[in-house]
Amino acid sequence: MTSIFDQYEQASQVSQKVVPASEQMTSSGYINMQLEDNTPLFSKQRMNFNPSDLITHVAVASDYLVLAMANGKLFRMDLKMPDQQEEIQYTKIIQPNSRLTAIFLDPLGYHLLLAFAARNKDGSPELVYLHRKSTKLKSVSKSRNYEVTEVGWNYENRSTSTTGPILLGTSQGHILEMELEADSDKMFTASQQYWRQLPNYLPLYGGKEIDGLIFDIGKGTDTPITGIQFHRVNNTSKYFIFVTTPTRLYQFIGHAMISDDKPSLQSIFHSYLTTPETGFQEIPSTLKYSKLQFYFDKSNEPKTFAWLTEPGIFYGQLDPSSQQNSNSLFTQGELINYPTDKGAGKESTPLSFVLTEFHALVMYSDGVKSVSLLNQELVYEDRYNSEVHGKLKNIVKDSVRRTIWAVTDKAVFRYKVNREDRNVWRIYSDKEQFDLAKLYCQNNPAYIDIINVKQADLLFTKGDYEKSAEIFAETQSSFETICLKFLEVHQINALKVYLSKRLDALTDDDKTLISMIVIWMTELYVSQLASLRRSGKDNSQEYHQFQSDLEVFLLQPKVVQCMQHVKSVVYDLLSSYGDKQNLIKLTVINEDYENVVAQHIYKKSYQEALNMLQSLKKPELFYQFAPVLMEETPTETVNALISQGAKLSPSKLLPAFLSCENDDKHASEITRYLEFMLQNFNVKDKAIHNYLFTLYVETDKPALMRYLSRQGRDITMVNYDVHYALRLCRENGLSEACVTLSALLGLWEAALELSLQVDISLAKSVAAMPEDVSLQKRLWLSVAEHIITKNQDIKEAMQLLEECSLIKIEDILPFFSDVTTIDHFSEPICQSLEEYNNQIEELKLEMEDATKSAECVRNEIQSFRNRSVLVSVTDVCCVCDIALLLRPFYLFPCAHRFHTDCLLAQAQPILAPARRNKLTDLQRQLAVLSNVELSTVTSSGLPLREVLRSEIDDIVASECVLCGEHMIASIDQPFIADQDWDRVMKEWE
Asked: Whereabouts are the CHCR repeats (predicted)?
């Protein structure tokens, strides 16, 4: 359990948290809701254990904690299993005059190095190794001459038994390369240890080479090394090394010698032996210490670094793969000042710090503060009660688990980082790094809107109006406000960009705003084009660009759809500017060709109107404008109509034809079109034929007779109204046409009477038309009566007898006058008597043939009465192949024989429904009626049983089922039914 002081301290952290002053952002269209997260960036929790003595040193890696205490013991604990704790005495292996100066734990948490320094001249520095799985301390004997102050671990090492190549920094400024293996004790003897002294970094000292000088960054001044980090560059053999002293940051980069998958880092320094001293950053300091920290991204690659010095923290972005500056491995290096309290002077230099992605958590003896790496503001402060916990000793970070640990004399605290990137977007926005701000705003639409508004305002201030308009269109800022901003500075192009972007973002439901933007943008384009035309720049590149932009705008799907609702407004707008070219283009885009054609007709450009109509697939426009065009240019209009062929309906053009002047020119052109349609497309519309008939009656009589001839003499096949045609012809006195039409209607007497008034040959043709012989004879007699009564010409009457075989001399004799003598008719009378005689002889022959046929039939009937057939005992039924005499049977003249029941089964499916029902009813009566009822004598003199059986025989045995009419009718049916096919196929297999 934590003490009451700890609880008070944790509860007071919220009130101690420093809230960064945020600049008032430009307002956006979003509702002003609470955007800040009030959760502290860092929350502290004390570890629930009490060390046995005061803590002096700490190391944490991969959730493994190691503490060194004043009583000479090491405390080790796996943070995943807090119950497993142990203490190890480390003073037994070291010399009495040595003191512990630092402990180092590798990133895996398995290899621990303890560095000791001499207390006085009698002691010597020492390095001790301890493995996680062991309690045995091992002295690295070859390091006795070096006081190790820093260890550069191999972050690529994944072995728990060996450290891999590592770098050691000493208090004299020496850098050593070594590797330790936990399982081999020989590794810790002076002769077996893997140990290399790196070559001298400064071979030239004082103008001459110093023999035997080992790697000495301090140039012989015993400058301690305070930090070492080395890492591979992108999985290559290239490595970079950072080394720090209290005043300098050195950078080395080069290719390491790889053997057995282990790098030899000494080769990296070879390229620096013959070059002047370069590749370091120097910051003056009076301190004896400094700290170097790296921040690793999620892929475990170093991303940033920070170097704690007296003036401040030198911070930069790591970019070892960049070749822009071969002398530096980092970019954007800057010195970050330490945080200060309000109303107080400058703070003293921190004792230690850890680096996160966006903050540096610095440690003082009495507390911890966090400063933003982006804007150098104090964002967190935590004071410690030294009376309860003691002074802070160190703050360290688990680079693998990304946890932060602070250690006092008496306690260990863990810091949790709570969404430290929550305000990064705002800081980048304040620094005008808008792309980075959007990257860290976590896709929050309110944050993105604030960033966009600020970026757009900045671009507007700088005069980059079009880019500003593009970004303003992505914000929720007031539409009217943004439009006014660009109008006030007369930036029409930028305004068009803004309107275009807003239009793209609108949905189909925003019809009102879409309509407004479309009309406004069209007006802006047209206004600019009109201004250029007035200034004589209609052939300039600027004019063509505006024209092209307008055409692209009008072709956008959303604009095309909107134009269907606002086209009248846009047409009026274009007309007001006199922009006929774009007006025509717009009507073509909108497929609103009616206005284009109407304008051509208004300008009396009839041929252009016809050309436009012919180029379109809009037949309704022909129907609309045909009346005017037929009136003005009949020939050209008819040519255009003929070119359309079946695309146009002649019946829909009738109003246009009827509205024309009734002169010969218009009538001939209309007739030409109608004749073309009838001849090529077989138009059968009665209205068209009636109108053409009318034109023929009024203008072309010969064409009328040809038309009647083509239509034929079948009233059901003609396409015109015969009654209307007859009335029209009568009104116009067309007797010949009236004869034809009367005959077509069956008014034979009227047709003949009228034809006799016109021409005798026409009358004869009418008389020959009827198919009814009696009617035809009556008409011919009328013709004969007319000829004889009018002319009394016996010769002509005799010719009429030759033309028509239906009338005889005796039929026309009554038409002659009483004074006419018989001598004139002797020849026709004799011929008529001879024909009668021939007919009598033919009738006699036919009677003799009929008598002979009747005799033959009587003979055949008599022969059938005496005919018999023998049935043998070996005969079988044609259906069941069982002896025929076993059951009642039927015997047919064709010699086929069937049992009664077999024949019933075969005949019943092929009977008609009525006969099948009749058969079923007869069988039911035989089965149901009693013997007394069946024995009743019917009116025919036979018992009812015999009558029923006789009727059954008539139905069943009317024909043979194997050779009768049914078998012939079913010749196209398959032998095997579809439903039996599968069964039969299986039987044949």
From this structure: 641-796
